[in-house]
Amino acid sequence: MRIKVDTEKCEGHNRCFVVAAELFELDDSGYAHEVGDGKVPAGLEEKARLAVTNCPEQAISIDEDK
Amino acid sequence: MTTEPAKTHTEPVKDWTTDYDIFDPGYIRDPFPTWDDLREKCPVAHTERWGGSWMPTTYEDLRKIAADIEIFSSRNPLVANVGEPTEEVMADLENQFSVGAPPISSDPPVHTWSRALLLPKFSIKEVARYEEETRELCRSLIDRFIDKGRADAAVDYAQQIPSRVIASMLGIPQERAGEFTEWVRGFLEYGLTNVDLRSGAAMQIFSFLNEQVQERKANPGDDLISYLLQAKAEGAPDPIPEPHVLGTCFLLLVAGIDTTWSSIGSAMWHLAQNPDDCKRLIDEPELITPAVEELLRAYSPVTMAREVTRDAQYNGCQMKENDKILMNFPAANRDPKKFENPDQVILDREVNPHIAFGVGIHRCAGSNLARMEMRVAIEEWLKRIPEFRLEDPEAVTWAGGQVRGPRKCAVVF
Questions:
Q1: What is the mean pLDDT of chain B?
Q2: CA torsion, points B265, B189, B353, B363, in degrees to nearest 10?
Q3: b/e code B207-222 from CB counts within 10 Å (16+ = b)
Q4: If B153 and its partner were Cys, which of A41, B43, B113, B268 is the partner (CB 3.0–4.6 Å)?
């Protein structure tokens, strides 16, 4: 599973970081991006899905197969 | 520019789809059934009252309108249009201070750099610097009433917190917090429907902040005003013009007080009536994070406005240039198409993409600060007062319009 933040859509709500701090990083202004290449370590899949569903900007996409 | 007050008729509303009144006392107290009705019958309602406006109530419409910044401008985010200040007052404000409250009252490109200046000071990490003093503050407030067995959770607690935290951030003596809380109410609450009160309050706030800005220029410190005076951002003039700094300080004061006070107050009002939720938060302290989001969703305090920049069709409505749109984020957060059981407060709700802080480029810059204050206020209260209830549910009073929250909320414990 792989996740990606669309930085054009992110408005810095920080919801992804709060539900899944292992998977997202914030820059100094609070805009989010995925950690590393976005690969979701085993066991964190549910957190990744929650980050997607809680983002008010619908800025996070998930690829279940990668 | 006109001094003529807009049509504000106060006769009871017969048809909420064509003649809603956001200042109707019954609506202020309990707007939820009206929103449900409107979402079903007429998702973008209209009224001629208070200067006229359109009001979307679905999650989808709120997101779409917030995203379309070309048609829906933020040049005037106030929800009522009851006339402009007299030319004399405007000239005074402009000559002395230059009006505006960027970035909330601006569109790109000014919005882009003025927001970029602020955001680093409101990150989760930066806001954490104020957590310990916020805890201390909450404890000292509780000390004042804990032995009495009763308190007004709105007046003695919620209202006292955000003004002091923002004062601390701006480097303003906390003793003055009570004073500027009243000015902010003059601007956003009493003044929303009374232009003289509003401009008087604006004048007081600008004069006060101007003194603070001059003081900081002479003696810079480790505070937000000093930071703004020397801040740099891509695309921003260097240095930032003083009227801009003043406008931004005005925004921080006005936007940071009523709003957070209202959300803390609503949280207390909810908890006072739901002992099971109090018990859960005490037994499972980690629930506080989703609980704060859920309380924000269920009792979202803030409605902002947009102005239509050119005649446009939206969702079957023929909108005209300069029409006002009330951004009813609170109603969007109760939309059953988006949230399961939207009228239930579910502290550990898993899927909660609420837009209490708005959505799109004007997402509340202070959202992390507001969350921290709410979390700390609830935690500290429950540590000392795990069981409490409303003294008299009928005696609770609410403010509404731009910011909805309890203004009197007596509890006993």
A1: 91
A2: -130
A3: ebbbebbeebeeeeee
A4: B268
Measured distance CA(B196)–CA(B289) in Å, rounded: 41
Residue B162 near residue B403, CB atoms below 8 Å? no
Contact A13 B361 (CB under 8 A): no
Q: What angle do CA A52, A53, A59 make, to 5 degrees?
A: 45
Q: What is the pLDDT of residues B331-349, one digit of tens each?
A: 999 999 999 999 999 999 9
Structure tokens at B64: 């779409």
In chain A, whose CA is at the least distance from the CA of B355?
A56
DSSP symbol at B70: T
Tokens 């914030």 appear where?
A: A26
Specify the length of chain B in residues. Answer: 413
pLDDT score of B6 more than 50:
no
Return the DSSP state at B4: S
Nearest to A57 among B350, B359, B368 (CB): B359
A-B interface: how many C-beta pairs under 8 angstroms? 47
Residues of chain A whose C-beta is under 8 A from some C-beta in B?
Answer: 11-15, 17-18, 26, 28-30, 50, 53-58
Assign residue B260 a region: left if phi > 0, alpha if psi is -120 to 50, beta otherwise?
Answer: alpha
**Domain residue spans of chain B:** 16-412
Which of A30, A54, A58 is nearest residue B123 as measured by Cβ atoms? Answer: A30
> What average pLDDT does range A23-39 have in this prediction?
97
Share of chain B above pLDDT 90, in %: 73
Distance CA B146, CA A3 (A): 49
> ipTM of the assembly?
0.97
Name all domains of chain A by residue range, CATH numbers in brackets: 2-61 (3.30.70.20)
**Residue A9, token pair as written in the block:** 């859509």
Inter-chain contact A30–B122, Cβ cutoff 8 Å? yes
From residue A24, alpha-carbon distances to B259, B270, B319, B370, B403 in Å are 29, 32, 41, 22, 32
Q: Name the residue facing A29 among B123, B289, B351 (closest C-beta).
A: B123
